Amino acid sequence: xxxxxxxxxxxxxxxxxxxxxxxxxxxxxxxxxxxxxxxxxxxxxxxxxxxxxxxxxxxxxxxxxxxxxxxxxxxxxxxxxxxxxxxxxxxxxxxxxxxxxxxxxxxxxxxxxxxxxxxxxxxxxxxxxxxxxxxxxxxxxxxxxxxxxxxxxxxxxxxxxxxxxxxxxxxxxxxxxxxxxxxxxxxxxxxxxxxxxxxxxxxxxxxxxxxxxxxxxxxxxxxxxxxxxxxxxxxxxxxxxxxxxxxxxxxxxxxxxxxxxxxxxxxxxxxxxxxxxxxxxxxxxxxxxxxxxxxxxxxxxxxx
Length: 304
Prior knowledge:
Blueprint: E1 2-5, H1 12-25, E2 31-34, H2 45-48, H3 53-58, E3 61-62, H4 75-91, E4 96-100, H5 103-110, H6 121-134, H7 136-140, H8 145-148, H9 156-167, E5 188-194, H10 197-213, H11 216-225, H12 238-242, H13 246-273, H14 275-278, E6 280-286, H15 292-303
Parallel strand pairs: 1-4, 1-5, 2-3, 2-4, 5-6
């Protein structure tokens, strides 16, 4: 199997499609399996940068836009669905291409994670109310020092989850700060796409402008009006888009992309160190100004 991951706006979908076209030339039948935690939601196609109908016509995508806005979704549930899809594709002789930028979902798709159980609904509701009233940094201050050090002050979703676990008396997973753990469920190649920071910022700004022109603000308002769940509302820049503040949206995506680049590099280092046991070939490839076909040729060569 193959995994293509990287920061927002780096162009993962285009590269995956170019890879699929090269694989078809040699008789393969690839399928993309989404590992983006927001692209699973129906109604956020523009904001999440999900593959368009035209792109899906060029490469079949699974686990894309199938969850209702009001529904809570977790890495544990995603892992069950992703394992089922990947196992079925391999059994049918088709190559899965796992594509996305959510580190936890990528790990969940490729390996077996020690995921913590859900917390009581009343604890979750209380944390949600405090997060809205006090903000993420105030909640983060409640965490044990060693736990707080490993989470970014602006990572609302992760802070809320850790506070929930702490209040429920549940210890975070022992490897919660590791970005690679355990063996891969199937042998594979993991490719992280990197890009020079200024170029990535320009790509993000251009993408946000394109989103706005395609009606992202209206999409955000409709999504919130549909009673979006907490996990759905974690979409980067959703509230700012609904308010029409494009500069704030760009800044939020740039911050998130920086965090993605950090975890991606760390994950590749950890996966490479464990490659003998995990059956993983992990590498970083600089995207910069290279086109999709050029990158696809290098990645297909890595498969061989």
